[in-house]
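LAB NOTEBOOK - FOLDING QUEUE
OPERATOR: T.R.
BATCH SIZE: 2
PURPOSE: Compare the predicted structure-token outputs for two unrelated chains run back to back under identical settings.
PRIORITY: normal
REVIEWER: second-year student, initials M.K.

ITEM 1
FIELD SEQUENCE / FIELD STRUCTURE:
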Amino acid sequence: MHHSFEPAEASQHGERLPSVNWRSRLSSAGFLPCLSASSQYTRSGDFCCVPMQGSHPGQLPNLNLRIPAATLSTPAWISWTARANLSYIVRMLANLKLRRNYDGLLYFAESTRNLQKLQGHHHIELELNLVVQGTITYVVGGQRFTFSQRTLLWLFPHQEHQMVDRSDNAQFYVAVFKPSVIDRYCRNEAYQGLKRGALAHDGVLSTVLRPEPFDLVRKTMDSLMQGSMDSDLLNREAGFGPASDFRFEHSDPDALNAGLRYLLLLSWRSQLAGKATRDAISLHPAVRRALKLLSEDQTEQKLDELARDCGASKSYLSRIFHRQIGVPLNRYRNSLRLSRFFEQYQQADGKTITQAVYAAGFGSYAQFYKVFSQAYGRGPRNCLRLS
């Protein structure tokens, strides 16, 4: 039996939580948030329904907690779930910081300049990728998926996803759509799958488009890029993870919004007309554990210590990680250090490049320079347009 509960004190926009601590009242009553790798919440307008479970099965009913969606990423909510040892799921909720006058965003990502963030995450927006060239590899739900040219793929709001690799020549579009767009414009039965999301699909929903629909979807995306922000900036900020002061902008938001709505419906029709792909590799528990530990800032852990925590020898972990992820473990760790370098460098405390290098876990600037140049084909100062 499920009951609904809506905290009256919760801010309408999720900006803060009240001094009257309804979380404590729920906890003391024996209720905990059902946030796990397989749990799901539903979205309605600006609110999310989070399932709560009684800590004493059979004695307390389950209930649905209706809270502002933005609350899920506030420090107060994170603190509460941390006390239930579940904070790592909530911290994965990425805030794309879309302004109210935007229904979503779109950018064109390229391996040579997309400074990706490798930690697993999810967001309240629906994400759509179109692979134009090369391959990209995601880990979703303990499985590895590699997508090639002309693949259209969907990442639904509650799906934690992690891009773990991409080919050197990879080019792909990334589009995201606010839940309100789906609520308002996907009314016909044909589009109900967008509202059900990944609940009806195992893994990542995707299809390889035939040349004609691929060209149509790609040209639509190309047209929406007109009036957008500089591609280097979008790759650096949207592709890596928005810096604290970054906001997506477009010269004509109304035209972009209209185009995004058309793109969403066009892409879904193309998905339905194609054949869903199911090319997935289930990851070994040691590999899944390694990905989790490395995403939790454990890049400085020695390989033998990491292997021990994963329940494997270091030689076996290195071998199975490379075989299943497609990337050597050492290269993957260096990629994580690169992403953390950009996190450190973009912070408001004004770190120098050298300070950010050591804060990210590199042993020396020479090591950082070598890894950076191999990844992006140019030195960090040129890439960052620094004098």
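ITEM 2
FIELD SEQUENCE / FIELD STRUCTURE:
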Amino acid sequence: MAFALRADLRVEQLADGFLVLRDDHDVLHLVGDQAEAFALARGGAEDVPDRLATAMAGLIELGLVETDTWSRRRVIQLGGAAAAAAVAVFALPSVAAAASPPDTTSDTGPPPRALTVSYLVVAGGGAGNADGGGGGGAGGVLEASGILLSPDDYAVTIGAGGTGGASGGDSSIGSIVTALGGGGGGATFDATPASGGSGAGGALYLTSGAAGTAGQGHAGGQGDSAAEWYGSGGGGGAGAAGGNVNWRVDPGVGGVGGAGISSSLAAAVGIGSPTGQVGGGGGGAAVSGAANTVPSAGGAGGGGNGAALGVAATAGVANTGGGGGGGGAGGGSGVVIIAYAIADAAGMSVSGGTTSDDGTTSYHVFTSNGTFSIA
């Protein structure tokens, strides 16, 4: 089996798609991409075109389609929850009601249409730790397009940057998508670097960096020491792992922060450091040695620089999810950007965040908690 319908479904084909009755007495109206993907599964398709992958993930999330091809992680990565939320569902009192004559005394009209959006979700960056601690990991970064959102109110949460060696906060759009906060750096003697969207760098004495989350970020780099040479690892970034310390090449220099990623949505609204880049890891601390006056650079995308002799660590840049520099700097806060074609929203009321448009696309930017509403 590749893709197949669940055996207990009752299906009626319509001119514009399908009506599907589940055993929980719900009737689902499938149109557009959902209907096309449903037809493929009904025919026992072995594969799904890329343009229908998100719709098929939504049908799997709804329990209409079974597969031995895609893992649960694959369904989540494709935005199955968002696609499922876009399907019109009508509750019936019983299965028998599905065979009853239609009630013509009232006309509820067609089911509400969904809005196709793109999003960028960036969590808060982790803080670098003092006392030779590693660089903070960048907040997790998730970006997707072609996501269908039904008319509703979606709570938007923005993760704060970590402080005092703590991890950053998560960012989310309702139950649709959640990016995990970046890991906080471990201190020299008594704290293990934390995992997260991206993992924090390891502290001194060969402490390994922490792991990142697949699809959101990367691991932190390893700290190192030998005789009088010490340094901590760089925090992981959304685009690359944090740098390891190599005292043989650069005595006493911390690892660089992992690079973030470039985002067209961030660039369109002027977010990022430099503009368009988010999710950079914090640089590790240079603790002692001949070269310890040179701070290790944070990763492009808002990562803070690590501390060096006479040079304080710098914080991750706000609204980039950048990790804080090793040596005690805080992480940068996260951001959520939701965009859609203006023409697609004709006749709808869409609100939330700080809005702008370029004549074709509308953007909603959230730098603090809020609500994205479609009516």
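REVIEWER COMMENT (ITEM 2): The chain is about 10% helix and 25% strand.
FOLLOW-UP: none requested
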